[in-house]
Structures are given as structure tokens and as C-alpha cells.
Amino acid sequence: MAQAVEHMSTQALPNPEQVFPWLHGLHADNQIQLAFFVSRRKSVRKVPRCIRSITIVKTGGDLSVSKLKGAIAPGELLASSSECSNTFLECDPKDGFSVRNFHIQACKLAMVSDIIVYGDEKTPLNDTIALARRISKAQRQYEARNGFPEQLFNTFMLSGEWPDNQIFSLCCQD
To answer: Which of 5, 10, 36, 164 has its CA 20 to 30 A from that of 173?
Structure first.
């Protein structure tokens, strides 16, 4: 896993024109936002094909005891309602206007990521397996809805023993 994160962190970022404004949110019902961006470029609502990432998700979502730096909680990317529990959040703002919306970017990038799911020593393995399955189903749905090849994005589950009182950073080293 460390090698995959290292590899991804050393890849060149896409040209900002290829991911803006998609990365900052374009909800279909946000007429103000759409009017501003669509008048400038017709393809702004399409998911960019030039971006792929790795997202780490901690089962249970308690990031105060997270063992892997940079992990996000499941609630930051998965819908919580029972009828949509296997779908990604609709994180694009429905109202208002902003060309930033940095608070939605973890979710946006997770949708175009391979996702690694893990739990700590207090997390039941079955909870981590169930979360990995939900995320995998959300990925399949997202791929189909956005015209991506089937099973383009992957879900992995990290398992094993955690040494006491250690937090791991999977960032690149100089």
C-alpha cells in the first residue's frame, strides 16, 4: 500500500483547466453556478478522464484515533440514507455560488479513486468488509452513470495487526 501511495503522490497533477470547475462543484440544480461556468465552456459538467487518485477510508469514521494520516470517514463520501446507502454523496452544492468549495474535494477525488478501506484494532472485521462492499457498489454505480469502463476503480481492504501507539504517514519521502 505504501508503494501505491508513493507512486500516486509522485505523478504529475492534471492541468487545472482539465479539472476546473468540476472539482469545485457543479450541481445540476445550481443554476447560478451552472450559468457562470457553462457559458464559458460546454463540457464543464463531465467527469474528467485525466484524474485518478487513491483514497483511504477508515471504518467507523473516528479519525481522532486514525492509524493512517490522510484517511477520511465513510460519511465524507457515502450517502447515509437507507435507499442510497451504496452510492456516493451528491457533494456538489445545490445552492449558492463559489468557485472554490474546497470542502467537497475529498469526496470528488474519492469518486475517481482506488479506495483502501481499513479499521483499527477495535473495529470488527465484518464492519470493514461491509464498508468495502458498499464502496465497491458505489464505484460500480458511479462508473455506469458517468460512462467509465466497468471496474475501472478498485476497492481494497487493508488488514493486519497495528503496533501500539503508532500512526503511519504514507506520504512521499525526500
So the answer is: 164
